[in-house]
Design goal:
The complex is a heterodimer of chains A (617) and B (249).
Chain A lengths: L6 H17 L2 E6 L2 H5 L2 H14 L6 E6 L11 E4 L3 E3 L7 H10 L9 E2 L6 E2 L6 H4 L17 H6 L4 H9 L2 H11 L11 H10 L6 E6 L8 H8 L1 H15 L3 E7 L3 H16 L15 E7 L8 H8 L23 E5 H13 L1 H5 L2 E2 L2 E2 L1 E8 L5 E6 L4 H8 L9 E6 L5 E4 L9 H6 L8 E6 L4 H15 L5 H18 L5 H17 L3 H6 L1 H9 L1 H9 L14 E3 L9 H5 L5 E2 L7 E2 L9 H5 L5 E3 L1
Parallel strand pairs in A: 1-2, 7-8, 7-10, 8-9, 13-17
Antiparallel strand pairs in A: 1-3, 3-4, 5-6, 11-12, 13-14, 15-16, 15-17, 18-21, 19-20
Helix pairs in contact in A: 3-4, 7-11, 7-14, 8-9, 8-11, 10-11, 10-12, 11-14, 18-19, 19-20, 20-22, 22-23
Chain B lengths: L1 E5 L2 E5 L5 H7 L23 E6 L2 E6 L10 E3 L3 H17 L4 H9 L19 H10 L5 E3 L6 E3 L14 H5 L7 E4 L2 E4 L4 E7 L6 E4 H10 L4 H4 L3 H16 L1
Parallel strand pairs in B: 1-5
Antiparallel strand pairs in B: 1-2, 3-4, 3-5, 6-7, 8-9, 9-10, 10-11
Classes of the chains: A alpha/beta (617), B alpha+beta (249).
The structure holds flavin mononucleotide (FMN), iron/sulfur cluster (SF4) (2 copies) and FE2/S2 (inorganic) cluster (FES).
């Protein structure tokens, strides 16, 4: 990749990229995000390439592997452009049929055809699928058009135009002002106004300043940042370079968790290419501005997402937070003024500079503007990555984008903000998903995890899950978090085993207040949220465990029993063969019986029975 | 000088001072556990938390780490703070149930009974020893390992330290007294750190008196004459006495 001397060179390279794109009549995009990759997308892509070669279509059909498209539920996902024909669950043996459909425009083979989960009606085009139709995709707009290893793909969608514009047409102050005007707020959790944060760092005194991209992404169930870095690393690089220009930082670091090897690889390759092209390094685009980036991999501790712990980790110390102030903008990496932003925050920057602050903030709600990517997971029809305007209601996200509950179930709550957030009951689903509204119902926006729970999810059990996570992720430096979180877990364990009392609810409240109020860092300060919010909204479930010794969702093992409905049992012996305890007895073709004494309540029989004869209650 | 208000009283302290220092200047008693005036602030025990109000925003912060800023309004004794301190102290007693200093501290903060089963630890994880070792002695012999409830102070890999000089600074600052240092024959034993050091025999009387490594360190880093360093304290006094008598004669 040769070095670009200036903006004219960049424009010429962009033109080349566009021409090459237009030359291919059909582009078949194979999602190679982790979900699709695990489902065999690499084999599908290879089969598609063979099918194209066999049909002699190399000149007119191009196979592209891309980052995550978002609709992980349908893995492996394949989309064919021009029209955007959508193929779900693609397999290598369907490759010739997919190529044929892509070229002729139809028909999509039944086995890879998407059908509406409720109406069963076939939907051929990506844009008509409700999951996509209700989104507002800005950051993910090109998710299925960009091969992360081909910078030409990014150039073709106006990549690096914002950097060129900032460096040649704007002063650093003007860039800063544009970001402030946009009202962008940090996407990493706390929602601090990005422009204001940059300004603090810009104003701080220091010969050397740093910008950092926080890609530690530790919330269980969240994968927005991974998808952005894997699928479109250049957008993050471009955002950081613009930030470096506005802040006056000549060095940047991407802190990526080592559990994201693909993100590390794609980001590293993109940095290398950007450097070769002179989009990073000395004298970028001949403007005299110099900025370079390095990657540091973190060992995957949740607490290392906290700014001061992250800095300690980069410096080679244990990832433990320290009290602020001094804030990183005053004294950050190696003691120098440092600005840390989340991956998604950085990825928004090129869009703001390219389209303007007004464009960015035209959508959103009150003080929360722009779009936000969520990873929608749990008990909904459509799971995956969704990008919606900030301030969309939970109802719209869960029922329109997410397609509502799975067959026969009812949705009862959503957890936002992961282990730092809270659960929101279905009765409050008209709440808007923005920083302030979520705080009012006892949760937080967080970094974008949305976990949907239905009537088979036990709220006490979910709270226990988060506390177990936090107990093992607490760094242990400060007393309230290190000692308080495990004690809260003990109390919840007691309640889940049917041995809780009303005093335990008070004890949880008291511990929760202290853990929240007195802990050193954000991990501890938010650790009680899942418990406190579930007591606030689902007190009746706690009461059922405490007073009736009953788990309404039939999850808490100490409070449930398994037995076999003799009416329904056909005596097929499937359960007895599945039982690891061998505690199910019965003659062939006769009703079977579970020995409650030996049953460990693993549920293997329930899964094995094809006649719904195993009852859990 | 910076002027702030604490519990309704104005106080002026030098820039760079902490809220804890300012409060102490006013004679306000804030409990501390992980703080030591000679070591860098750490902010771990959270007993010293106070409410800091600035520009209309209230935050709970550890006073031992919080630098003073102009126009700060600090409260050290609200109902919330008392609850935080009491609950934190109860958690500390549950962590180290057999530690008398910790139980006394908790009692002082209003803990009447402890509702949790004891964890049986002796170390309260205040980090005074590790800071003393690193900042005062300059040896990173001990530090925290593991995280969360498994956190503890140890030498690297929990084996014999090859940099510990056996000075005992850690034991000296430890609030629970859980770092026992025993001299047995020609060995100094730091059981909790799996470390044993050779003791040096006095060049006069032959008694073992100080770790070899510590003396080597003093030789290279101080200007004390070697003749004094190789004598035990008693013989050293004698030697100095002899010199003085000589001089006075
Ligand atoms: C325990 C903990 C974990 C965090 N993890 C992350 C993370 O994985 N990614 C992230 O961007 N921010 C994380 N944050 C928030 C960061 O500390 C910081 O606020 C954020 O990176 C700032 O960027 P933003 O202003 O762009 O949101 C975490 C905070 C805490 C307290
Ligand atoms: S709140 Fe938890 S994670 Fe944060 S410093 Fe304290 S112990 Fe460590
Ligand atoms: S050994 Fe003593 S000084 Fe060191 S951390 Fe434990 S309690 Fe504190
Ligand atoms: S004395 Fe301030 S946190 Fe321990």
């Amino acid at each position: 990749m040769s070095r670009l001397a200036g903006v004219t060179d960049l424009d010429a390279r962009r033109k080349q990229a566009l021409e090459a794109h237009e030359a291919a009549a059909t582009v078949i995009a194979v999602c190679d995000g982790p979900g699709c990759n695990a489902a065999g997308s690499a084999k599908v892509a290879a089969a598609l390439r063979r099918a194209v070669a066999d049909a002699g279509l190399e000149g007119s059909v191009q196979i592209k592997t891309t980052g995550c498209h978002g609709f992980c539920q349908c893995a492996p996902v394949v989309v064919a452009y021009g029209d955007g024909l959508f193929f779900r669950g693609a397999t290598p043996d369907q490759a010739p049929a997919i190529v044929e459909a892509a070229v002729n425009g139809q028909p999509i083979p039944e086995s890879v055809l998407y059908r509406h989960p409720a109406t069963n009606e076939p939907i051929a085009l990506e844009r008509d699928i409700p999951f996509y139709a209700h989104q507002e995709r800005r950051l993910l707009k090109h998710a299925s058009h960009i091969d992360p290893l081909q910078v030409a793909d990014y150039l073709a969608v106006d990549g690096y135009a914002a950097l060129a514009r900032a460096l040649t047409e704007m002063t650093p102050e003007a860039v800063l002002e544009e970001v402030k005007q946009s009202a962008l707020r940090g996407r990493g959790g706390a929602g601090f106004p990005t422009g204001m944060k940059w300004e603090l760092c810009r104003r701080a005194e220091g010969d050397q300043k740093y910008v950092i991209c926080n890609a530690d992404e530790g919330d269980p169930g969240a994968f927005m940042d991974r998808a952005l870095l894997e699928g479109n690393p250049h957008s993050v690089i471009e955002g950081m370079a613009i930030g470096g220009y506005a802040i006056g930082a000549s060095r940047g670091i991407m802190y990526i968790r080592a559990e994201y090897p693909l993100a590390v690889r794609n980001a590293a390759l993109a940095i290398e290419v950007a450097r070769e092209m002179g989009l990073l390094g000395e004298d970028i685009l001949g403007t005299g501005f110099s900025f370079d980036l390095d990657i540091v991999t973190g060992a995957g501790a949740f607490v290392c997402g906290e700014e001061t712990a992250l800095i300690a980790s980069i410096e080679g110390f244990a990832g433990e937070p320290r009290p602020r102030p001094p804030f990183p903008a005053q004294r950050g990496l190696f003691g120098k003024p440092t600005n840390i932003n989340n991956v998604e925050t950085w990825a928004n920057i090129p869009l703001i500079i390219r389209h303007g602050a007004a464009w960015f903030s035209e959508i959103g709600y009150e003080r929360s503007r722009g779009t936000k990517i969520f990873s929608l997971v749990g008990e909904v029809q459509n799971t995956g990555l969704v990008e919606v305007p900030v301030g969309m209601t939970l109802n719209e996200i869960v029922f329109e984008v997410g397609g509502g509950p799975k067959p026969g179930r009812t949705i009862k709550a959503v957890q936002t903000g992961g282990p730092s957030g809270g659960c929101i009951p279905a009765s409050l689903f008209d709440v808007r998903v923005d920083y302030e509204s979520l705080a009012q119902v006892g949760s937080i926006m967080g970094s974008g995890g949305l976990i949907v729970m239905d009537d088979r999810t036990c709220i006490v059990d979910v709270a226990r899950y988060y506390l177990r996570f936090l107990k093992s992720e607490s760094c242990g430096k400060c007393t309230p978090c290190r000692e308080g979180v495990p004690r809260m877990l003990e109390v919840l364990d007691r309640i889940a085993s049917g041995e809780g009392s009303d005093a335990d609810i008070d004890l949880l409240g008291q511990l929760g207040r202290t853990v929240k109020g007195a802990s050193l860092c954000g991990l501890g300060q938010t650790a009680a949220n899942p418990v406190l919010s579930s007591i606030r909204h689902f007190r009746h479930e706690f009461d059922a465990h405490i007073h009736e010794k009953r788990c309404p969702a039939a999850v808490c093992t100490a409070l449930i029993t398994f037995h076999i409905d003799a009416e329904k049992c056909t005596g097929c012996t499937a359960c007895a063969r599945a039982c690891p305890q061998q505690c199910i007895t019965g003659e062939r073709k006769q009703p079977h019986v579970i020995d409650p004494e030996r049953c460990i309540k693993c549920g293997a029989c329930l899964d094995a029975c094809r006649f719904d004869a195993v009852v859990k209650e | 000088m910076i002027r702030i208000e604490i519990d309704g009283n104005a106080v002026e302290v030098a820039e760079g001072s902490t809220v804890l220092e300012a409060a102490r200047k006013l004679g306000i008693d804030i409990p501390t556990l992980c703080h030591h005036a000679g070591l860098t602030p750490y902010g771990a025990c959270r007993l010293c938390v106070v409410e800091v109000e600035q520009r209309g925003r209230k935050r709970i912060e550890s006073s031992c780490t919080r630098p003073v800023e102009p126009d700060m309004v600090v409260r050290t004794d609200t109902d919330d703070l008392r609850e935080y301190r009491r609950t934190t102290a109860e958690l500390l007693v549950a962590q180290c149930p057999d530690s008398k200093p910790i139980r006394e501290l908790a009692e002082r903060l209003g803990v009447q009974n402890v509702r949790f089963e004891g964890r049986g630890m002796e170390c309260i994880l205040c980090g005074l020893c590790t800071r003393a070792c690193q900042q005062k002695i300059g040896t990173p012999a001990i530090s925290f390992i593991h995280r969360g409830v498994d956190r503890k102070v140890a030498t690297p890999f929990e084996i014999q330290s090859d940099v510990c000089i056996g000075c005992g600074a850690c034991a000296r600052v430890c609030p629970t007294g859980c770092i026992a240092i025993e001299d047995m024959g020609n060995k100094r034993v730091l059981r909790v750190f799996n470390t044993e050091l050779e003791l040096q025999a006095c060049s006069e009387c032959g008694a073992y008196f100080a770790p070899q490594r510590m003396i080597d360190r003093l030789k290279t880093e101080t200007e004390v004459t070697e003749g004094l360093l190789t004598r035990c304290p008693a013989c050293r006094r004698q030697a100095i006495g002899a010199v003085l008598r000589q001089a006075m004669r």
